[in-house]
Amino acid sequence: MNIHEHQAKELLRRYDVPVPSGCVAFTPDEAAHAARKLGGEVWVVKSQIHAGGRGAGYFAEHSSGQGGVRVVRSLADVHASAVDMLGKTLITKETGPAGRVVKRLYVEQGCDGAHDLSARDFYLGILIDPATSRVTLMASTEGGVDIEDVAARTPEKILKVAIDPASGIQPFHARRLASGLGLSGKQVDAATRFILSTYRAFTELDASIVEINPLRVTDSGDGSVKLMALDARFAFDDNALFRHPDIEAMRDESDDDPVEIKASRHGMNYVCFDGNIGCMVNGAGLAMATVDIIKQHGGEPANFLDVGGSATRERVAAAFRLIIGDPKVDGILVNIFGGIMRCDMVAEGVVEAVRDADLTVPLVVRLEGTHAALGRQILRDARLPILCARDLADGAEKIVAAVRATQKHGGR
Ligand code: ADP
Ligand code: MG
Question: What global pTM score does this model have?
Answer without folding.
Answer: 0.79
